[in-house]
Every structure is written in structure tokens, then in C-alpha cells.
Amino acid sequence: MARRQLQFDNWHLVWFKGLIYVLLILYAAVTLIPFLWALSASFKPLSEIVSGEINFFPRHFTLENYRQVFLREPLFLRWFFNSAIVAISVTASNLLFNSMAGYALARLQFRGRGFWFFLVLAVLAIPIQVTLIPTFLILKSFGWLNSYQGAIVPSMVNATFIFMMRQFFVNFPQELEEAAQLDGLNRFEIFWQIVLPLAKPALAAQAVFVFMSSWNNFLLPIVILFEPEMFTLPLGLNTFKGQYISYWNYIMAASMVFTLPALGIYAFFNRYFIEGIALSGSKK
Fold first, then answer.
1. How many domains, in total, are found in the chain?
2. Following DSSP, what letter does each residue of 29-92 receive, concatenated?
3. Which string of DSSP letters, residue by residue, matches 148-182?
4. Same domain as 218, residue 129
5. Do 221 and 133 reside in the same domain of the chain?
6. Both 189 and 256 in a single domain?
7. What mean pLDDT, rounded, does the chain reach?
8. 266: which residues sit within 8 A by CB, 6+ positions away?
9. Does residue 107 sit in the same domain as residue 153?
10. pLDDT level of residue 244 (50, 70, 90 thresholds)
11. What is the pLDDT of residue 9?
């Protein structure tokens, strides 16, 4: 009887796993199909794209779209450079400041710590759209409109990742810090030499999210950047859409180039990514 029950349970487990795999495959297909169509469209002429036919293999394969983007669009490489400068600067500053703030909220004892933690949580509830006009007015008063510092400074810290790093450091083994104190290290040295190197999983997860958010950011640049030479890639891609015609073939080609850095940084940090999400999601 027990053996028959075990076989019955195993049979149900196999069917359950099969159902899960089917659902995951369907979800992957729904997610990948638009990307594959965009990749295919980047090698099609505009007439084939706007014809309304859904085909994943170009009937008239062409590299003209990529030639147009790289060789005949004089500002494309400048837009790529602008996006790289902004995204790398924002990511580096977030890794530093969010980690320092998260560590202070998790480990340091100071007056008002509970208030500052509550303020961080309160900021999480404020939509970014609400802060666009105040951000514009502040940057205008500083004379930072249409500049790199205007695109970088408002995004140098992020309440979401301050909270994430705080959760990671709350669960960080305190015995390591106590041992470092016995060796004569002060709090700053403990953070830099002991804690931060062991926080690579959380830092990797943060780096992926922050870089992709900054790389794809459209709202802030469209508010503060006016000259085409200062556009980031999302704004630059928007210039291919005219009042009467949109050059979807160029947009698709530029979009494929646009996705490469995000895919690259995810591949680079992939070995830490899942571990960082699990560790930072712990509660205490």
C-alpha cells in the first residue's frame, strides 16, 4: 500500500513538473517573440516592415539599416557615448552611496536612525513622475540643465537599493566585524576591507538593476536635455519618429545596438545576480 502511494505521489510530481515547464516555455515564448521580431525587422527595408505581414525571416535581407545608423547618422555614436557616461557614473555612485547608507542604517547607532529609515521607506512610495518638475527647477537654479551633471546627480542615490543593502547588511555575520575590531580596524576600514568585498552578490544585483534603469531612462533626459548633441540613446531613437513617417527600420537597428550593453552587464554579473536577490530579500 505504501509503495503504491509512493508511485502515485511520484506520478503527480512528474505531471506537476511537466506543467511548470510548459508554463515557463510559454512565458519564455511570449517574452522572446517581440524581441525576435525586432531583431528580424532590423534587417528589413521599411516597406517590408510597414506592409503589415508578420514574418520572422526577412524577404529582402539588408544591412542598410545598420549602415544608416552607424555611418550616416552623425550623432548616433555621441548618443551612445552620452548614455554610457551617464549609466556608468550613476551605477558607480549608487553602488558606493547606497551601500554606505545601507550599512549605516543596519549597523551604526546614531540619533534619528529610525527616522531616516522611515524616510527611506516613505520615498519608496513616491512615483518618480511626481519629482520631475521639482528636479527640473532645482537643476535650473544650479545651471545644470542640458549637462552631464544634470543627468547624473539626481540619480546618484536610490531609496530602493538603500533598503536592499540595509537588508543585506542586517543579515551580514557580525562576528566577522567583531574579529576585525579585535585586529585594530576602525569602522571605516571594516566597511571597506571586510564588509564590502563580501557584499559582491548584493552589489552585483544592484549594479544590474541600476545600470539598466539608467541606460533605459527616458523621463529625466527628455525633461532636462534640449540639444541633440547631449541626447542619450532613448532620446536619440525618438528622433527617428517624424510627424508624418517613422523610420522603424532604423529604430529597430538602433534598438538592437541599444540592448547590447544591458545584456553584457547582466552576463558579467550573472553568477552573483540570483544570490544577491536571495540574500537582500531576507527579513529581520
1. 2
2. HHHHHHHHHHHHHTTS-HHHHTT----SS-SS--SHHHHIIIII-TTHHHHHHHHHHHHHHHHH
3. HHHHHGGGS--HHHHHHHHHHHHTS-HHHHHHHHH
4. yes
5. yes
6. yes
7. 86
8. 208, 212, 273
9. yes
10. low
11. 58
Task: Measure the CA–CA gap between 122 and 73, rounded to whole angstroms.
Answer: 44
Do 178 and 265 fall into the same domain?
A: yes
Classified as helix, coil or strand, 246 is strand
Residue 216 forms part of a structural domain: yes
Same domain membership, residue 27 and residue 158: no
Domain that holds residue 12: 2-41
- Count of CB atoms within 10 A of residue 281's CB? 12
DSSP designation for 284: -
> In one letter, which amino acid is 231?
F
Q: What is the pLDDT of residue 50?
A: 84
How many angstroms separate the CA atoms of 64 and 71, rounded? Answer: 10
Q: 16 and 150, same structural domain?
A: no
Distance CA 31, CA 25 (A): 10
Q: Is the separation of the CB atoms in 233 and 151 below 8 Å?
A: no
What is the C-alpha end-to-end distance of the chain, expressed in Å?
A: 44
Question: pLDDT confidence of 53, banded at 50, 70, 90?
Answer: confident
Q: Which of 1-10, 43-52, 172-181, 259-268 has the lowest mean pLDDT?
A: 1-10
Joined together, the cell numbers standing for residue 186 give 576602525
Question: Which of 111-120, 127-136, 265-274 is least confident?
Answer: 265-274
CB 211 within 8 A of CB 84: no
Tens of pLDDT, residue by residue over 69-103, are 888 888 999 999 999 999 999 999 999 999 999 99
